[in-house]
Amino acid sequence: MSDRVSVTYENHIAHVRLIRADKMNAVDQAMIDGIIAAGKDVAASDARVCVISGEGKGFCAGIDVGGLGAMIGQDPNELLMPRTHGEGTTNQWQEVAMVWTRVPVPVIAAVHGVCFGAGMQLALGADIRIAARDARFAVMEMKWGIVPDMGGMVLLPRLVRSDVLRKLTYTAEPVSAEKAEAWGLVTELADDPVAAAMDLAEALTLKSPAALRAAKALIGYAETHAQDDVLLEESRVQAGLMGTAEQMEVVAAQIQKRAPVFKG
Question: Is the domain of 106 the same as that of 190?
Answer without folding.
Answer: yes
